[in-house]
Amino acid sequence: MFDDFLTGDLSQVEAAVRAAAAAEIMPRYRQLADDDVIEKNGPHDLVTTADRRAEEHLTASLLRLLPGSVVVGEEAVHADPKVYEALGGDAPVWIVDPVDGTRQFVAGERGFCTLVALAHHGELLASWTYAPALDEMAVAVRGRGATVDGTAIRAGSPAPDAALRIAMSHPDYTSDEQKRALLGLRAEGFAARPCGSAGLEYLAVARGQADAVAFSWEFAWDHAAGLLLVAEAGGAQATLSGAPFRIAGGNDLPFTAARDRATADRVLAALRAGA
């Protein structure tokens, strides 16, 4: 049944993502009341009523679409960290970030998205990145490429000798060791800046609008959808040790995803020099 689901029409997943955003996110966009916004772990880590309701909506929809699957959502894990262990289990797992870029959403900006990925035994199989305020839907299916609104995208390669455009972890969210590594991207040949919504930063790499990301945290809901999107657009990724990023965790951080292997290797070399 699982194989039939993957080889069948996955547009029903896209429809579920759009429906959750239409029902729970966009009606609250620029309409949040004070009690709709809560700090989880400080002023930079916010959750809203839209996050919670959208995750509940998606969880119900996705489990109906694929009986026997499980959901690992950001808000469910915040309530019960043991939920995260499903990433290492035998059941197909939906990885959900209902509002990626909550700070931007709260500020009334357009740079937020909903992220959904499907994985099994640690392998990413399909992903959906939906930016509802921009009305853009990016879809990636392993071995079948990446699209935005139905049009195929390719990451390509940076122009020779151009400074690499890189979105990286904000220093406030890094350890001292990671800060040193990321300082390697402040060297000549790199144009680095703090990241916004991780999902939209990955989309920019997959489209060739940015050259790489360099991130120092590993929550699967932030990275799963984007990593597959970049891979299916022809890009590459690796952790500081050179090993591939593992969605279940235990990675050597920081890690990068880039438009091509040469760019990924260049970013990793700079990170190692900084470390």
From TrEMBL:
Q: Which InterPro entries match?
A: Inositol_monophosphatase-like, Inositol_monophosphatase_CS
Q: Describe the reaction catalysed, as an equation.
A: a myo-inositol phosphate + H2O = myo-inositol + phosphate
Membrane as a keyword of this entry, yes or no, is no
User: What broad taxonomic lineage does this protein's source fall under?
Assistant: Bacteria, Bacillati, Actinomycetota, Actinomycetes, Kitasatosporales
UniProt keyword terms in alphabetical order: Magnesium, Metal-binding
Q: Is Protein biosynthesis found in the keyword set?
A: no
Entry EC number(s): 3.1.3.25
What is the official name of this protein in its record? inositol-phosphate phosphatase
